[in-house]
Specification:
Helices cover about 50% and strands about 10% of the residues.
Length: about 300
């Protein structure tokens, strides 16, 4: 070992080792640096794609707002909830004689499965104007309504007359919640709605026309009724009374929208439903659910 250190062979090997170090170290740094550059380039490309998509979304939103004809000098509430629009053009001009539209307000509830079972067995389609019940069971009932081919409409989220009719803005705030709930629960965008208490009532007379105009501008179609089952009167309303109210109301009309309620206490409504369908069929009526093409029946307006 002593003879090796300081020998010519020692210095040759030392020089060779230094050469290897001088070559290897820059190469290692170069490889690491190139890796960092690739990572940076990938991140910049990802950010660029994200910005490009955001720009496309913005341009699409601008075009959509143009399609909805928002008046820059119009009411400020027109700009609220830019995604709160019906997915179709507003038509609502089909009015067929001999059709009865069974409608159920205030659900979903524990009575919903019973109503659906009867409708299924009788091969009848109906319309359910639901309120803001966001629990898992209520969401499932809403899915069941859609799965059976019925129409799921909006009836406000809170059903609080003082709150929703305080202003147009308040109404839109509430309706946007039920709109979103229905979409999230079922994947279906609602297109029809019903005013709590009807389109003209003692709570909304100051704002009803403005609300109606704004909802129509957004493509949603409102429906009142011309046949009342009377099942909102209280627990003393028997199934026979409900049946007679509906059959009697239908006897004086060519087409009818029947108001009923889907709420836990409405056992008599469920009991009246099957004989109601039978008697209306015997009178020559057929049944359908409301669509945005169906001409509305509205209080205070000709139909």
């Amino acid at each position: 070992m002593k003879g090796y250190i300081g020998s010519v062979r020692f210095f040759k090997n030392l020089i060779l080792l230094l050469v290897i170090i001088f070559i290897a170290v820059p190469t290692t740094f170069s490889i690491r640096y190139k890796g960092q550059i690739k990572d940076l380039q990938a991140e910049l490309e990802q950010q660029s794609n994200k910005l490009e998509q955001q720009n496309k979304d913005l341009q699409a939103e601008i075009e959509r707002l143009k399609d909805h004809h928002i008046d820059p000098d119009g009411p400020a509430y027109q700009a609220l909830y830019p995604d709160f629009y019906a997915p179709q053009e507003l038509t609502a001009d089909q009015a067929e004689d001999g059709v009865i539209y069974l409608t159920f307000d205030d659900g979903p509830s524990a009575r919903t499965p019973e109503v659906l079972q009867i409708l299924r067995e009788e091969n009848v389609k109906a319309t359910f104007f639901v309120i803001g019940r966001a629990d898992g069971q209520s969401r499932q009932w809403m899915k069941d309504i859609v799965a059976d081919g019925h129409t799921l409409g909006m009836h406000t989220y809170t059903h609080n007359y003082d709150q929703i009719y305080a202003s147009v803005e308040a109404y839109l705030d509430d309706m946007y919640q039920i709109f979103t709930l229905i979409k999230d629960a079922t994947g279906v965008t609602p297109t029809v709605f019903r005013f709590p208490g009807g389109s003209i009532n003692g709570y909304n007379y100051e704002v009803s026309q403005d609300i109606l105009s704004e909802m129509l501008r957004r493509g949603f179609v409102p429906y009142d009724w011309n046949i009342s089952s009377g099942d909102a009167s209280g627990s003393d309303t028997t199934s026979d009374m409900i049946l007679n109210n509906v059959v009697g109301g239908a006897s004086g009309t060519d087409r009818g929208i029947v108001l009923m309620h889907d709420a836990s206490p409405k056992y008599t409504t469920v009991a009246a439903l099957r004989p109601m369908i039978t008697q209306l069929r015997n009178m020559g009526f057929r049944f359908d659910c409301l669509h945005p093409e169906t001409k509305p029946i509205l209080f205070g307006y000709s139909y």
